[in-house]
Write a structure and sequence with these properties.
Largest sheet: 7 strands, parallel
Distance between the termini: 57 Å
CATH architecture: 3-Layer(aba) Sandwich
CATH superfamily: NAD(P)-binding Rossmann-like Domain
Shape: globular
CATH class: Alpha Beta
Number of helices: 12
Number of domains: 1
Protein backbone atom coordinates (compact mmCIF):
# COMPACT_ATOMS: atom_id res chain seq x y z
CA UNK A 1 0.00 0.00 0.00
CA UNK A 2 1.25 3.47 -0.90
CA UNK A 3 1.88 5.68 2.13
CA UNK A 4 -0.63 8.57 1.81
CA UNK A 5 1.51 10.72 4.10
CA UNK A 6 4.66 10.34 2.01
CA UNK A 7 6.10 13.37 0.23
CA UNK A 8 8.75 11.40 -1.63
CA UNK A 9 8.95 12.74 -5.17
CA UNK A 10 6.52 15.57 -4.41
CA UNK A 11 7.30 19.14 -5.44
CA UNK A 12 6.09 21.88 -3.10
CA UNK A 13 6.46 25.61 -2.51
CA UNK A 14 6.37 27.34 0.86
CA UNK A 15 5.95 31.03 1.63
CA UNK A 16 7.42 32.04 4.98
CA UNK A 17 10.19 29.59 5.85
CA UNK A 18 12.67 31.78 7.73
CA UNK A 19 11.45 30.85 11.20
CA UNK A 20 8.58 29.51 13.26
CA UNK A 21 5.89 27.29 11.79
CA UNK A 22 7.15 27.79 8.23
CA UNK A 23 10.70 26.79 9.08
CA UNK A 24 9.43 23.71 10.94
CA UNK A 25 7.18 22.83 8.03
CA UNK A 26 9.94 23.24 5.43
CA UNK A 27 12.35 21.17 7.50
CA UNK A 28 9.82 18.36 7.91
CA UNK A 29 8.95 18.39 4.21
CA UNK A 30 12.62 18.04 3.27
CA UNK A 31 12.95 15.15 5.72
CA UNK A 32 9.88 13.54 4.13
CA UNK A 33 11.57 13.59 0.73
CA UNK A 34 9.86 16.57 -0.90
CA UNK A 35 11.50 18.92 -3.36
CA UNK A 36 10.96 22.17 -1.48
CA UNK A 37 11.15 25.67 -2.95
CA UNK A 38 10.90 28.42 -0.35
CA UNK A 39 10.39 32.18 -0.28
CA UNK A 40 10.63 34.70 2.55
CA UNK A 41 11.93 38.19 3.22
CA UNK A 42 14.94 36.68 4.99
CA UNK A 43 17.00 33.59 4.09
CA UNK A 44 15.79 30.31 5.53
CA UNK A 45 18.12 28.11 7.61
CA UNK A 46 16.59 25.05 5.92
CA UNK A 47 18.51 23.45 3.05
CA UNK A 48 15.96 23.36 0.22
CA UNK A 49 15.94 22.82 -3.53
CA UNK A 50 15.77 26.61 -3.90
CA UNK A 51 15.20 29.72 -1.83
CA UNK A 52 14.26 33.19 -3.08
CA UNK A 53 13.90 36.37 -1.07
CA UNK A 54 10.42 37.74 -1.67
CA UNK A 55 8.26 40.51 -0.22
CA UNK A 56 4.63 39.42 -0.54
CA UNK A 57 3.53 43.06 -0.76
CA UNK A 58 5.14 43.17 -4.23
CA UNK A 59 2.82 41.43 -6.69
CA UNK A 60 5.16 41.92 -9.65
CA UNK A 61 7.91 40.20 -7.67
CA UNK A 62 5.52 37.35 -6.83
CA UNK A 63 4.77 36.86 -10.52
CA UNK A 64 8.49 36.84 -11.33
CA UNK A 65 9.35 34.32 -8.60
CA UNK A 66 6.54 31.95 -9.56
CA UNK A 67 7.70 32.01 -13.17
CA UNK A 68 11.33 31.50 -12.10
CA UNK A 69 10.52 28.48 -9.93
CA UNK A 70 8.24 27.25 -12.69
CA UNK A 71 6.89 23.79 -13.30
CA UNK A 72 4.03 22.01 -11.62
CA UNK A 73 3.59 21.58 -7.88
CA UNK A 74 1.91 19.10 -5.56
CA UNK A 75 1.48 21.49 -2.66
CA UNK A 76 1.46 25.16 -1.70
CA UNK A 77 2.19 26.00 1.95
CA UNK A 78 1.41 29.54 3.12
CA UNK A 79 3.11 30.30 6.43
CA UNK A 80 4.15 33.92 5.89
CA UNK A 81 2.64 36.72 7.95
CA UNK A 82 3.11 40.03 9.73
CA UNK A 83 2.10 40.83 13.33
CA UNK A 84 0.16 43.88 14.47
CA UNK A 85 3.35 45.82 15.16
CA UNK A 86 3.31 46.80 11.46
CA UNK A 87 0.86 49.27 9.89
CA UNK A 88 -2.57 47.74 9.32
CA UNK A 89 -2.38 48.18 5.55
CA UNK A 90 0.92 46.27 5.43
CA UNK A 91 -0.47 43.52 7.64
CA UNK A 92 -3.43 43.03 5.31
CA UNK A 93 -1.20 43.36 2.24
CA UNK A 94 0.94 40.43 3.37
CA UNK A 95 -1.38 38.23 5.42
CA UNK A 96 -4.19 38.19 2.91
CA UNK A 97 -3.57 40.08 -0.34
CA UNK A 98 -0.04 38.76 -0.85
CA UNK A 99 -0.89 35.21 0.21
CA UNK A 100 -3.91 35.22 -2.09
CA UNK A 101 -1.98 36.53 -5.09
CA UNK A 102 0.87 34.05 -4.50
CA UNK A 103 -1.64 31.19 -4.25
CA UNK A 104 -3.64 32.26 -7.29
CA UNK A 105 -0.47 32.31 -9.39
CA UNK A 106 0.26 28.72 -8.39
CA UNK A 107 -3.25 27.38 -8.95
CA UNK A 108 -2.83 26.81 -12.72
CA UNK A 109 0.46 25.01 -11.97
CA UNK A 110 -1.05 22.67 -9.37
CA UNK A 111 -1.33 19.04 -10.41
CA UNK A 112 -4.61 17.22 -10.06
CA UNK A 113 -4.68 16.08 -6.43
CA UNK A 114 -2.55 19.02 -5.29
CA UNK A 115 -3.54 21.23 -2.38
CA UNK A 116 -3.01 24.61 -0.72
CA UNK A 117 -2.86 25.17 3.01
CA UNK A 118 -2.53 28.51 4.78
CA UNK A 119 -1.86 29.51 8.37
CA UNK A 120 -4.72 31.67 9.62
CA UNK A 121 -5.17 32.13 13.39
CA UNK A 122 -7.60 31.36 16.17
CA UNK A 123 -7.86 35.15 16.36
CA UNK A 124 -10.12 34.63 13.31
CA UNK A 125 -12.47 32.18 15.01
CA UNK A 126 -15.34 34.69 14.91
CA UNK A 127 -15.13 35.19 11.14
CA UNK A 128 -18.62 33.77 10.51
CA UNK A 129 -20.11 36.82 12.22
CA UNK A 130 -19.03 39.12 9.39
CA UNK A 131 -18.91 37.04 6.23
CA UNK A 132 -20.79 39.65 4.12
CA UNK A 133 -18.24 42.33 5.00
CA UNK A 134 -15.33 39.99 4.32
CA UNK A 135 -16.81 38.90 0.99
CA UNK A 136 -17.11 42.56 0.00
CA UNK A 137 -13.42 43.04 0.73
CA UNK A 138 -12.39 39.80 -0.99
CA UNK A 139 -14.23 40.95 -4.13
CA UNK A 140 -11.66 43.77 -4.53
CA UNK A 141 -9.18 41.68 -6.50
CA UNK A 142 -7.16 44.72 -7.65
CA UNK A 143 -4.42 45.55 -5.13
CA UNK A 144 -4.95 49.32 -5.20
CA UNK A 145 -8.71 48.93 -4.83
CA UNK A 146 -8.23 46.50 -1.96
CA UNK A 147 -5.94 48.90 -0.10
CA UNK A 148 -8.39 51.75 -0.73
CA UNK A 149 -11.09 49.54 0.81
CA UNK A 150 -8.89 48.93 3.84
CA UNK A 151 -8.34 52.67 4.29
CA UNK A 152 -12.07 53.34 3.99
CA UNK A 153 -12.97 50.67 6.57
CA UNK A 154 -10.42 51.46 9.26
CA UNK A 155 -12.80 50.61 12.11
CA UNK A 156 -13.54 47.16 10.69
CA UNK A 157 -9.92 46.43 9.79
CA UNK A 158 -8.54 47.70 13.13
CA UNK A 159 -4.89 46.62 13.50
CA UNK A 160 -5.25 44.40 10.41
CA UNK A 161 -4.24 41.10 11.99
CA UNK A 162 -7.54 39.52 12.94
CA UNK A 163 -9.23 40.99 9.86
CA UNK A 164 -6.60 39.62 7.47
CA UNK A 165 -6.79 36.17 9.05
CA UNK A 166 -10.60 36.23 8.83
CA UNK A 167 -10.38 37.20 5.15
CA UNK A 168 -7.96 34.33 4.58
CA UNK A 169 -10.45 31.90 6.14
CA UNK A 170 -13.41 33.10 4.08
CA UNK A 171 -11.40 33.18 0.84
CA UNK A 172 -10.18 29.64 1.53
CA UNK A 173 -13.73 28.39 1.87
CA UNK A 174 -14.94 30.32 -1.18
CA UNK A 175 -12.16 29.01 -3.44
CA UNK A 176 -12.62 25.43 -2.27
CA UNK A 177 -15.87 25.23 -4.26
CA UNK A 178 -14.21 25.96 -7.62
CA UNK A 179 -10.93 24.16 -7.01
CA UNK A 180 -12.42 20.80 -6.11
CA UNK A 181 -13.93 20.61 -9.60
CA UNK A 182 -10.33 20.58 -10.87
CA UNK A 183 -9.30 17.91 -8.37
CA UNK A 184 -7.50 20.47 -6.20
CA UNK A 185 -8.03 21.33 -2.54
CA UNK A 186 -7.53 24.30 -0.23
CA UNK A 187 -7.65 24.53 3.57
CA UNK A 188 -6.31 26.64 6.41
CA UNK A 189 -5.45 26.20 10.07
CA UNK A 190 -6.36 28.25 13.13
CA UNK A 191 -3.31 27.92 15.42
CA UNK A 192 -3.43 28.88 19.08
CA UNK A 193 -0.47 30.81 20.59
CA UNK A 194 2.74 29.19 19.40
CA UNK A 195 6.31 29.56 20.64
CA UNK A 196 7.77 31.28 17.59
CA UNK A 197 9.95 34.40 17.23
CA UNK A 198 6.82 36.36 16.23
CA UNK A 199 5.33 35.80 19.68
CA UNK A 200 7.57 38.59 21.02
CA UNK A 201 5.81 40.99 18.65
CA UNK A 202 2.37 39.81 19.73
CA UNK A 203 3.35 40.34 23.38
CA UNK A 204 4.06 44.01 22.62
CA UNK A 205 0.41 44.45 21.65
CA UNK A 206 -1.53 42.46 24.25
CA UNK A 207 -0.98 41.55 27.92
CA UNK A 208 0.23 38.12 28.97
CA UNK A 209 -3.22 37.20 30.27
CA UNK A 210 -4.54 37.19 26.68
CA UNK A 211 -2.06 34.55 25.56
CA UNK A 212 -2.56 32.57 28.75
CA UNK A 213 -6.30 32.50 28.07
CA UNK A 214 -5.93 31.45 24.43
CA UNK A 215 -3.56 28.68 25.55
CA UNK A 216 -6.37 26.98 27.49
CA UNK A 217 -7.16 24.16 28.20
CA UNK A 218 -3.63 22.77 27.82
CA UNK A 219 -2.09 25.88 29.42
CA UNK A 220 0.99 26.04 27.25
CA UNK A 221 1.92 27.36 23.84
CA UNK A 222 2.20 25.01 20.89
CA UNK A 223 5.58 24.24 19.39
CA UNK A 224 6.20 25.17 15.75
CA UNK A 225 6.38 21.46 14.94
CA UNK A 226 2.95 20.85 16.47
CA UNK A 227 1.57 23.44 14.05
CA UNK A 228 3.59 22.22 11.06
CA UNK A 229 2.40 18.61 11.04
CA UNK A 230 -1.29 19.45 10.55
CA UNK A 231 -0.28 21.60 7.55
CA UNK A 232 1.62 18.66 6.12
CA UNK A 233 -1.33 16.34 6.74
CA UNK A 234 -3.82 18.66 5.05
CA UNK A 235 -1.73 18.90 1.87
CA UNK A 236 -1.15 15.14 1.70
CA UNK A 237 -3.25 12.49 -0.09
CA UNK A 238 -4.34 11.32 3.37
CA UNK A 239 -6.62 14.39 3.39
CA UNK A 240 -7.93 13.86 -0.16
CA UNK A 241 -11.58 14.49 0.84
CA UNK A 242 -10.86 17.50 3.06
CA UNK A 243 -11.30 20.92 1.46
CA UNK A 244 -12.65 24.28 2.57
CA UNK A 245 -11.80 23.52 6.18
CA UNK A 246 -10.52 25.98 8.79
CA UNK A 247 -8.91 23.52 11.19
CA UNK A 248 -8.39 24.64 14.79
CA UNK A 249 -4.96 23.47 15.99
CA UNK A 250 -5.36 24.59 19.57
CA UNK A 251 -5.55 21.57 21.91
CA UNK A 252 -9.28 22.02 22.42
CA UNK A 253 -9.60 25.79 22.87
CA UNK A 254 -12.17 26.29 20.10
CA UNK A 255 -14.23 23.35 21.26
CA UNK A 256 -14.18 24.70 24.78
CA UNK A 257 -15.33 28.16 23.69
CA UNK A 258 -18.10 26.85 21.41
CA UNK A 259 -19.54 24.62 24.13
CA UNK A 260 -19.13 27.10 26.97
CA UNK A 261 -16.53 25.02 28.79
CA UNK A 262 -14.16 27.95 28.31
CA UNK A 263 -15.93 31.21 29.17
CA UNK A 264 -15.03 33.77 26.52
CA UNK A 265 -17.61 36.27 27.78
CA UNK A 266 -16.09 36.30 31.26
CA UNK A 267 -12.63 36.75 29.78
CA UNK A 268 -13.76 39.72 27.71
CA UNK A 269 -15.40 41.22 30.78
CA UNK A 270 -12.15 40.86 32.72
CA UNK A 271 -10.30 42.70 29.96
CA UNK A 272 -12.85 45.50 29.96
CA UNK A 273 -12.58 45.78 33.72
CA UNK A 274 -8.81 45.93 33.57
CA UNK A 275 -8.46 42.88 35.81
Amino acid sequence: MTNPLSYAGKRVVIAGCFSGMGEACARALVDLGAEVHGVDIRPSPVSMASFTELDLKDWAAIDHVVAAIGGEVDGVFNCAGLPQTFPAADVVAVNFLGIRHWSEQWMPRMKRGAAIVSVSSNAAMGYMQRVPLLREFIATTDKAAALDWVAAHADDVADGYGFSKEALAVWTQMRSVDLIAEGKRINCTFPSPTATPMMKDFEKIAPKMVFDFFAKPINRQATPEEQAWPLILLNSPAASFISGVCLPVDAGFTGGVLTGEIDMAAFRASLSGGQ
